[in-house]
Amino acid sequence: MAWSGWFHARPVARGVWLVAEPGHVNSFLVAGRDRAVLVDSGLGIAPIRRVVEALTDRPVDVVHTHAHLDHVGGDAEFDRVAIHPAGVAELRAGASASERRRYLAHTRRMLTAADAYRALDRDFFHLLSADSDPRPLPPGVDETTWAPGPALEPALLADGDVVDLGGRALTVLHTPGHSPDSVCFLDEHAGLLFGGDTVNTGPTYAQAPESDLAAFAASTARLADLADDVHLVLMAHFGRAVAEGAYLREVAAAFARLLAGDAVLRPARDCDDDPVREAVFDACSIYL
């Protein structure tokens, strides 16, 4: 199902929808019998709640994989949000104007490059889809008009907590590394893992001051132990939002190799245009 404007939404499993801001970030709506949750609320560049309410008639709360600005921007549209305790301070503080300015500069660079990329993809690669093809910014968006309001005081999520939706449950897995507050959500019955920024098919961001490479490796190893029971991994970024459970082993192996010194490094730049080192593996890469 395609949405005009900023979002693209489509079903990915029974009672689960991808709600993409193509080229930016993916949220996921998960509905049970009694209620639903939105796993992350996106950038807040355009209202997300009306998209969600068109997909389900259940009452919807927000549960966060972590507090970074591209995952929490729609919080003010909802009555209840929840996050790991390590993310509360960042959630309360919100993103600064300089953070928003840097992100919009990245967006404009991406949009400038998009036409050439589309032409190459059309002629050779055939990878772009509505999930990933970036859309123009809504009119008038800049770092002053894009200023998401704060959420109410959040509820807290701890490792092992169960989010009961009625006939469907999500288990909280604390997976620090990308950030201290990072969590994943496991729908054990359906075999679905919502990976946040702990698992991605593009570069994994481990370069920030709050990132912890050893913790990241331990978290991905923990997820790899679940691979046989996970059918789909649902991810927050880049062109491939959905992968098979076996991908968890590939990501964990990449972190293990990196810690062992077995990695090829090349210069790269992250979405803030900051210089980073990129450890390159067959299945993924890691920014340092």
UniProtKB/TrEMBL annotation:
Database matches in InterPro entries: Metallo-B-lactamas (IPR001279), NDM-1-like (IPR050855), RibonucZ/Hydroxyglut_hydro (IPR036866)
Gene Ontology molecular function: hydrolase activity
UniProt-listed Pfam families: Lactamase_B (PF00753)
UniProt domain Metallo-beta-lactamase: residue ranges: 24-237
Keyword Chaperone annotated: no
Keyword line: Hydrolase
Protein name: Glyoxylase-like metal-dependent hydrolase (Beta-lactamase superfamily II)
